[in-house]
Design goal:
Blueprint: H1 2-10, E1 14-18, H2 29-35, E2 39-41, H3 46-58, E3 62-68, H4 69-72, H5 76-84, E4 91-95, H6 112-116, E5 123-125, H7 130-142, E6 148-151, E7 173-176, E8 180-185, H8 190-204, E9 209-212, H9 221-230, E10 231-241, H10 246-253, E11 260-266, H11 276-282, H12 287-297
Parallel strand pairs: 1-2, 1-3, 3-4, 4-6, 5-6, 8-9, 8-10, 10-11
Antiparallel strand pairs: 7-9
Helix pairs in contact: 3-5, 8-12
């Protein structure tokens, strides 16, 4: 909300559009009133919000669509047809993407990665920290080349230093250079990746490579090619269902090589009112379980 208010004051082309979900970006009534003509609430009409944003972008505005992941699925056709075919520079900001945010079956955000990372022209960004989230938002709103979807992270707020420019689409970031095993920890599962990397070093005696992919919709072929030369196993961690998601893109890349790939994420099912910590145990996504898998896979 602080970013939005500052951006609106400094840039008259900035436009916030929401389908009755200003709370997804923390905008209170006073702030919405202050935004004036730079704020439009279309009511519970996600299709209108996205189609309107595409038209606004084509006419020179810098539109930011704000809502929850579970609601934007109503506008899949407008995202694909109106925004992405036209390559409109719309930014779509989505809240409650995480498996441990909203847990009732009608409000799950765990299907977003599989649904939207396969739409052509759409750049899906998965920030890992507060700084990275705000930097991605700032870059996306001002650029005019791509439609961009940003998944608001649901992890603990951290202030790791982040890049400011994301114009090199699909460029992953190596946060820790290691050997044998590479861990690709996407979005708000990055901290899980940090913890797993530390556990591998302690339990197995070597330092794994830790990568922040940042771009959920892209494959960094150059980096993956390099990894393939000196790593035997690649681990992917994603806060969403595995089927059709980020990890399977990585597995496909290595499908004809000698590099093994292990994807961790949720199953393709309608979970309902579950305990997040217990679910991770069931999925084998504790450090203990994953280290045991890694030890077996690199024998």
């Amino acid at each position: 909300a602080e970013y939005i208010m500052q951006k609106a004051k400094s840039d008259s082309e900035f436009l916030v559009i929401t389908p009755a979900m200003p709370g997804s970006a923390g905008l209170n009534q006073e702030q919405r009133k202050e935004l004036g003509l730079q704020y439009v609430d279309v009511g519970i009409a996600e299709e209108q919000a996205v189609a309107m944003a595409s038209g606004a972008a084509k006419n020179g505005a810098k539109p930011l669509v704000v809502t929850n992941t579970t609601f934007i699925q109503r506008a899949y056709d407008q995202i694909s047809h109106d925004v992405c075919i036209n390559n409109s520079s719309v930014t779509i900001l989505l809240n409650y993407n995480s498996f441990d945010s909203l847990t009732d079956v009608t409000h799950l955000g765990i299907f977003g990665l599989a649904a939207y990372t396969n739409v052509p022209n759409l750049v899906v960004l998965a920030p890992t920290s507060k700084d990275e989230y705000l930097a991605m938002l700032d870059w996306s709103v001002d650029q005019k080349e791509h439609p961009v979807m940003i998944l608001i992270p649901g992890n603990e707020v951290t202030d790791r230093e982040a890049d400011k420019d994301y114009s090199k689409i699909g460029k992953y970031k190596v946060e820790q250079q290691g050997e044998n095993v590479a861990i690709l920890a996407l979005g708000d599962f990055y901290q899980m990746g940090e913890s797993l990397a530390a556990a591998v070093k302690e339990e197995l005696g070597f330092t794994p490579t830790l990568i922040n992919p940042r771009f959920a919709s892209e494959v960094d072929k150059e980096l993956l090619e390099q990894i393939g030369h000196n790593h035997r196993l690649v681990i992917t961690l994603e806060d969403g269902i595995v089927d059709g998601g980020f990890g399977q893109k990585i597995a496909t890349f290595y499908s004809t090589s000698n590099v093994k790939v292990k994807n961790y994420g949720l199953e393709k099912k309608f979970y309902d009112r579950y305990n997040p910590a217990e679910l991770l145990k069931e999925l084998g996504m504790t450090n203990e379980a994953m280290v045991a898998d890694i030890k077996e896979l690199i024998k």
